[in-house]
Amino acid sequence: MKQEFVSARLLYHQAMEAAPLDDRPQHFADDEVRLYDTLDYPAFSIGAERLRLAFRTAYGLLDKIAGFLNLYFELGNDPNRVDLRGIWYANPRKRRSLHPKIADRQNLALRGLYWLSFDILGEAREAADDPNDALAPEAAHLNTLRNALEHRCLVLTIETFGARNDDGIEREEITAFQHNTERILELVHEALMLLSLAMHEEEMRKLRHRGPDALILKATLPVYRRAWDDL
Question: Is 76 left (phi over 0), alpha (psi -120 to 50) or beta?
């Protein structure tokens, strides 16, 4: 997950370096790509696609964090239907009572991750997503953007003046989408830090609760070295 976040962050910065409105030459991958101007001020470029990929990758990490929590705490939820907003509940679809394996845990970082989840909307709800289900005012819009990117058609535009809203295509002004991508990256960065701290606390708790006769083997993992590090 850390590597995926670093990749999403890099994609975001590369997108900013290849912004469609600056004076830099276009990316070679855009050469001879035949596109038609749909007259709604579209922003078609490798830079725009990198921005979209950064958003999708970062938002997807929130689901992966939920999947990790589901496995680590043995919550028993369907691994194909978990999200960070609903993973805390005995019934993720109704979200009325906390899961018994989580409710009484004395883990401040895990509680922080729980409250951070209120800044997003989940997918596994019994009814349609309600904007009041989240604390952050932009949560519903971020969720709409994610669903549009994954399942529908979201066109990034240079501006939205005169854009049609009745043609089945959703549009987002590219500068606004940039700010929304920054917000998702911030949320994921914080979520990963809280997850790491929460897991450290859980492992230390397990260590403290071992009996005095427990056999504990220490192991030190080497730092991962890529093949080209030695070149």
Answer: left
